[in-house]
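Dear support,

I submitted the protein below through the web form. The confirmation email said the job was done, but the results page showed an empty box. After a refresh the structure appeared. I'm attaching both so you can tell me whether what I see now is the final result or a partial one.
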Amino acid sequence: MEAAEPRLADVEYLEVQCKSALNRVKGMGFDWSLNPYTGCEHRCAFCYVRAFELRADRPSDDRYGRTVRIKVNVAGVLRGELSRKSWRKETIVIGAATDPYQPAEGRYKLTRQCLEALRDFSNPAAMITRGPMIVRDIDVLSELARRAHLHITFSIPTVDDDVWRRTEPGTAHPKQRLRAIEKLVAAGVDVGVGMAPILPGLSDRPDRLEAVVKAARAAGATGLWAGMLHLKDGTREHFMSVLGKHWPELLPRYERAYRERAYLPPAYGEATMKAVARLRTQYGVSDRRRVILKPPPEPEQLSLLN
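What the results page shows now:
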């Protein structure tokens, strides 16, 4: 088995000016998205954004995440949009197409600036992230939560060291994410866990599913949802290459399961979803979903998120 990728990679930051901060979204369970960055240093092997990158004629293979576009003026543009008389204080989802707390945020603090704008305008928001850097902004998040509805989803597909290290090379350890949940909950922020994607033959083992649900409950997560892996063109090729490097014995199984389809047939994941439901009941973790907890968008929709 080959060694996992290093957590930190050489990344080129391209500073750009954006004309708009808010993106109108259709057919996704929420209407507005906000992404301070385009591209993601986390480089997750299963990231559905790779499919869009392929369609946009940008690298979707192991070069993805090596260039990140920094929308340096995004917070100022956002304030202008929130101040419009026509704006109705609808919920804004942050991180639908790229992680708002990837390493670039440590330098640029654009997500924090956007949260400050949302706080100042008492605008409801939701966010999905794998970045424990979020605890830096507990002051702003707790203030926003007191003024408007706020829900954070921490993506924790697995707490297994080997699966995490080889499929999420640029992310912080799941235990760091769980500690971040504890701190956010203590500060009065509503935080749930997204256990997705679950990887057949890897993270769908009963003991590994239970470990995530048990850890989420211990951290105080207000809810947990789960979803199986899906592989569209762009994501499929890269994920299969990672699988071939680290778990070649699983390749035939995946090739059969995902042959000519992006989503698993219901029968393949039905037992896993039932197991998660039983575990939620066993550990007293809600399965309630928030606006951010919808299935990942289609590649065609992602153009609206960037």
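Response: this is the final, complete result; the empty box was a page-load delay. Strands lie at 12-16, 22-24, 32-34, 37-38, 67-71, 92-94, 125-129, 150-155, 190-198, 224-228.
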